[in-house]
Amino acid sequence: MALLSTDKRHWIKKAQEAFNGYIRDRDSGLPCVSCDRSEAEVNQSEGWKPGGAWDCGHYLSVGSHPELRFEPLNAHRQCKSCNGGSGNYTRKNHQVAAAYRAELVKRIGLEKVEWLEGPYVPKKHSIEDLQAIAAEYRIKRRELQKGHHEDIEYA
Description:
The chain has helices at 2-5, 8-26, 39-46, 80-85, 90-108, 110-117, 127-145; strands at 54-58, 75-79. It is mainly alpha-helical. Helix 2 runs parallel beside helix 7 (127-145) and helix 5 packs across helix 6.
């Protein structure tokens, strides 16, 4: 177990799992950020998929914008078809990204979307940072599950 505590990859995974779960719960009841299909529609057509029908989809990908990996404004509940397929096909990727951006402008406002798209200094999270992020989002998720919804700063 001591080996895991010093393995940064382990803590990135733990922090990402906690963050993703929080985002999926935070946006529960909202339609897919990209295709606007309702929760009922997505669950009916995709509920059979491993891990369920929903992902935490990042507007700006973790690969190209790792500094926004744990930024709640950059992440929204997205159906697996939109999130999983978006990188596989150039045409679909463009359509999904354009729809995501349009919905994001409605949800959080153009100013915040442009802030997300702005330049950033790359972040290097320490293991301690990652542990704190994981703990923060586990607590936030538990609060949501108890029915204590926080005020989300949308537009």
